[in-house]
Amino acid sequence: MDAEVEGEGQSHEPVLLKEIVDFLRPERGGIFVDCTLGLGGHAEAILKASPNARLIGIDRDSEALAIAQKRLAIFDNRFQAVHANFKEISQILGQLETANVQGVLADLGVSSLQLDNRDRGFSFATEAPLDMRMDRSQGETAADLVNNLTGRELADLIFEYGEERGARRIARAIERARARAPITTTKQLAELVVRALHVPGRWRIHPATRTFQALRIAVNQELRAVEAFLPEAVTALAPGGRLAIISFHSLEDRIAKRSFLRESGRCDCPAEIRGLAMASQRFAQDGLESRGEGYGSSRTSGETACPACGAQRRVHLLTRKPIRPSDAEIARNPRSRSALLRVCEKL
Distances in Å between the alpha carbon of 326 and those of 18, 121, 323? Predict the structure, then answer.
């Protein structure tokens, strides 16, 4: 959520900018990867911090990428833009023949460009096509899901990704409405949700917020992408390199927290499952050692700590609890209020 959207004259701050620069330490130089480049606010601060810092900026939104490229052109060959999904970080770095980067950043929020551009369909504040794709060159739209999923599939989607307790009522209302005519705009859907939930008066948070969040996550397969991305990002880091993740809701933060714990050698498997997996591993190791093929009992960086979930000690955590924006930042930039930052360092 950053930079300035052309034609609107409205300034948008990168979220937790000072904290990101402090943790990633770009003044030391090296290669950094901004995996959700957006409009380039975080990237600009990283590149300004040192003439020895280089940055690869990845974004699946070609419109945002074009704006960021223009903004960061002053850094010449210290900046390189890539149009791709951040979950493809391993392939991207391989193609660029780049390894052992000093810092990786992923800001998982929807960018200001996407929120404020009424044609993108991310917001219910104005009438717009029900799209929500971050990459408009591919994939199903939110309208496709709303009009084609079964009522049960819609209810499950809205409940799982939106944590919406009224998911079944909303799904039934969608089924009734689309039987008369397809649901194609943001206003149509938002008004339908309000009626389905029977929420009177004024609201602090719009009743359609969770439904729109659920559809956006499903359209862009956001949670799957985060799960695939995090271990790959750790692999890309050099020893001492740091990974910073900014999430904006509990589903993303939960994935980041669990991934960071696994990467630090801890797991959240049930005790009985972990016990069975460890017993199986010990049995296999005893067999190897009896043939003179054992590898010893001490565990070091990178060795599997839990065979059940694959936990292994590759990082140590720099943030035991997520860092939140200050009151001053929230006052300047209300969109930052739900941001959560977690950071780890490669061993």
Answer: 11, 30, 9
